[in-house]
Amino acid sequence: MSVEQAPVQRADFDQVMVPNYSPAAFIPVRGEGSRVWDQSGRELIDFAGGIAVNALGHCHPALVKALTEQANTLWHVSNVFTNEPALRLAHKLVDATFAERAFFCNSGAESNEAAFKLARRVAHDRFGPEKHEIIATVNSFHGRTLFTVSVGGQPKYSDGFGPKITGISHVPYNDLEALKAQISDKTCAVVIEPIQGESGVVPADKAYLEGARKLCDEHNALLIFDEVQTGVGRTGSLYAYQHYGVTPDILTSAKSLGGGFPIGAMLTTTDLAKHLAVGTHGTTYGGNPLACAVACAVLDVVNTPETLAGIKAKHERFKSRLEKIGQQSGLFTQVRGVGLLIGCVLSDAWKGKAKDILNAAEKEGVMVLQAGPDVVRFAPSLVVEDADIDEGLARFERAVAKLTQG
Ligand SMILES: *Cc1c(COP(=O)(O)O)cnc(C)c1O
Question: From ligand 1's centre to the CA of 377, what distance in Å?
Answer without folding.
Answer: 15
